[in-house]
Amino acid sequence: MQKIVIRGGARLEGEVRVSGSKNAALPILASSLLAAGRSIYKNVPGLGDVRTMGKLLARLGATYEEKPAGTAYVDTTNIVEHEAPYELVKTMRASVLVLGPLLARHGRARVSLPGGCAIGARPIDQHLKGLAAMGARIDLEHGYVNARARRLRGATIVFDVVTVTGTENLMMAAALAKGRTALENAAREPEVEELARVLNKMGAKIRGAGTSMITIDGVDELAPIEHSVIPDRIEAGTLLVAAAITRGNVLLRDCLPEHLDAIIAKLRAAGAEVVADGDGIRVRGKADFKPTDISTQPYPGFPTDMQAQFMVLMTRARGQSVLSETIFENRYMHVPELQRMGADIVVEGRTAIVRGPTKLAGTTVMATDLRASASLVLAGLIAEGKTDILRIYHLDRGYDRLDRKLRALGADVRRAKGSV
Ligand code: EPU
């Protein structure tokens, strides 16, 4: 198993290109199941979760090919299976995104229940409630969801909690339903808007994506398309923090600043210089920062997927910063590892209090989930001495060669054989 070895202290400088969005690419790939034929997706990030989705599509009978890197060809002419098995769902919860499309186009779907994961319980009751309201017969048996429907019919669905993949699953199911579906209290994430753009290109009739009220008029058929995936706002945010904390001067290219408002606002509040213009986003860091409080919220609020990375910046701030994680109940798995590196962090329930500035010292740390591993990489960049990060398959699930990008900006980062 590989590990990442970082020697801290380098200042990041130069330009870096942001890859395609993981959380946009996954539902888009799943949406290919709604049409028969060959779709072509560009700007697809090279990462573990995308490969897992490719495997799942292949298992359902699609042909999936990624060649050249960044371009995915999916042919869904012969979908022969309708099951997302446990071994794939357990490695990637987003596998549940095939539920809506399979049910809508093939009348049946069998998807393993995801169960809990490192960051929280993460149930899918809202996905199931919506599909049932659209007329699906849903049975839970032996750890699987069995869903059947002749043809789904439009319904008004009010989400009890704002759910990103829940909104996406129901939007895909409703695209082929009979009649009108209204999704209220829908997620407003740019990835939801992007999926609506893709579905509309395929022939769907969706309005309001990007707001909390989405209306879908079902159509009889959708067609395959060619589409280029939007840039990854969380990768962009991670790179912005990396530049800021290393006192760097970095220009991010191929990113959409309008998706990063909350992140940029907090970086500025902490004292980093961030300028977004036609060329991209330039960030200039400094030696110490101001304390900043953060509460994670659904979009357009501050994303939970940036909480762990921001915590590293908070260790650099003079004073006390308070972070509240409101989306997931167990998303502080990086804290004990950051504490081992010397950070002063106290967790009380869903709140973390970070006191700074503290000097971080390199040591061996273990990645526990995707964003936690990104925070350990960031900590390694500013730590004194050498940091060895084990279990970096978590990082590779969701970042397209982050280590290479950081190295190109001047960081001393390499991969080596790891022991765990
Ligand atoms: N929830 C329910 N019932 C449901 C669905 C969700 O109670 O049926 C709860 C969850 O337990 C959680 C909250 O609602 O407390 C929000 O969860 P959501 O469903 O929005 O999360 P998700 O769709 O499973 C996506 C991203 C996550 C990101 C969250 C929140 C994808 C593939 N995943 O997950 O990304 O953290 O939205 O923004 O889009 C990551 O990239 O590292 C990652 C975890």
Outline the biggest β-sheet. Answer: 4 strands, mixed
Uncertain runs: none
- Tell me the radius of gyration: 21 Å
| Strands, count | 24
The number of helical elements comes to: 14
Mean pLDDT figure: 96
Q: Gap between N and C termini, in Å?
A: 7 Å
Order of strands across the widest beta sheet?
A: 22-23-1-24
3D structure, described in words:
This protein has 420 residues and is α/β, with parallel strands linked by helices. Helices cover 31% and strands 26% of the residues. It is built from 14 helices and 24 strands. It has helices at residues 22-31, 48-59, 86-89, 99-106, 125-133, 164-175, 190-202, 233-245, 261-270, 307-314, 335-340, 370-382, 393-398, 402-408, and strands spanning 2-7, 13-17, 38-42, 63-66, 72-75, 83-84, 108-112, 137-141, 144-148, 156-158, 180-184, 205-207, 213-217, 226-228, 249-253, 273-277, 280-284, 294-295, 319-324, 344-348, 351-356, 364-366, 386-390, 412-417. The strands form 6 sheets. Strands 22-23-1-24 form a 4-stranded mixed β-sheet. Strand 4 (63-66) and strand 5 form a beta hairpin. Helix 1 packs parallel to helix 2 (48-59) and helix 8 (233-245) runs parallel beside helix 12. The protein is globular, with a radius of gyration of 21 Å. The termini are close together. The chain binds uridine-diphosphate-2(N-acetylglucosaminyl) butyric acid.
Q: Which key terms come to mind for this protein?
A:
alpha/beta, 14 helices, 4-stranded mixed β-sheet, binds uridine-diphosphate-2(N-acetylglucosaminyl) butyric acid, globular
